[in-house]
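Summary for the steering committee. The consortium agreed at its last meeting that each partner would contribute one worked example illustrating the joint modelling workflow. Our contribution is presented below. We chose a case with several input lines so that the handling of multiple components could be demonstrated. No manual editing was applied between input and output; the record is shown as generated.
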Amino acid sequence: MELALHFGIELPATRPIPRRVTDSVPSFEQIVDAHYQGLFRFAMSMCRREATAQDLVQQTFLQWAKKGHTLREASKVKTWLFTTIYREWLGIARREKKYEEVEFEPDQHGATQHHDDGENPRVDSATLQTALEELEPNYRAPLVLFYLKELSYRDIAETLGVPIGTVMSRLSRAKDSLRTILRRLEDSAASNIIPLSAS
Amino acid sequence: MNREEARLELDATTLRPQDASPEARAMVESDPELGAWLKQRTAFDEQVAEAFAASIPTGLRESILQNARQPAKRSFRWVLPMLAAAAAVVVGWTMLWPVTNSMPAWQAESLAAVTKVEYGMSKVDHVSRDFEAIKKMLVADQSPTPVRLPGTVGTMPVLACKRIQVAGRAASIICFEIEPGKEAHLVVVDNTGIPNLPPQLQPQFKTSKNWNMASWSDGSQTFLLATRADEAALKKLFGLA
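What follows is the complete predicted structure of the assembly.
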């Protein structure tokens, strides 16, 4: 089956990426190793279904295998991958009508920003996922990318196709919302604790 | 940069402080309240980032690498059969194609057109069982119709007709049923100025591949009658079998 690789999609492992600077050429496998976990976590946070998240990651790397060689700047690989997976997710979300562009951007309409400076709420994985689900996708996407620590806010803006200022204000609002939701969930959990009755 | 702008930028860079501009960092140094706020925000963000790590499905990496190769395998799987099928069509068509270089140009063009009609590669223009109706249709199409036909050629059941071009001029194909399930195609050409014509009123018989042909001239018209029926059936039409 070795011959198989001579037909159809040629893996970028054997295809150098054109670049402007001379640095080491990452192979397809190296690119997968470097990014598949981050991409999966992003996809999982956006679609909340493991099977769909896996499909999105697969699809993204297939796109890379087909088109990655056209990327002229090797430093943009990560942004390219996250942009691609975000678009793939958008396509699914729009088909399922789970995503609609938010028409009103408070930061562009002079709304004042609320700063929550209270105590930090406690966070665990399960509560965090519950809280993220309450956020609008417009806010969830930059927030998840931010917490993945993979991309700078400039790269997040490029990935999501929005201005840098919009990303910064969405991040700030999303964090405030997240704190509020986490605090509510924390209070709700505390009120559900049934104290042991003294006998 | 004002305080609010600095706050937005610092908030967007808590986990990647190297991305913050020197201006924003300088404001933190000079503004203790902003510094305290940033410290608390950073602590929260680090806590969230730590809780963020969703578990990665086992085998995802291997699956990605495997899938990236699969389309290639699929292509390979289909390429050979498709190439084989294409080659078979080419070889088959070459074996069936009756036109040869030794034929006069008018005959080669006529036989090529007839072959395409026979194999369904070229559609007929009109279908009718009525010979008179077929002739009227050809006249309407400004295509030649036979003035007269030898033997029993004109008595075969007619099926259809088509306008074609032979030697750059309008010509006709009239399709007959020579035997049940077998067709004979009569090409009618206005022969003015065409070289290498068959003699007047003397049909010449020729066989090429699995085609049997008779060609003759009659005044300003030249005819080619071609069929995949056997030679005897063809000659019988001319009273020769």
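DSSP finds seven helices and seven strands in chain B. The beta strands of chain B are 126-127, 158-166, 169-179, 182-190, 204-208, 211-218, 221-227.
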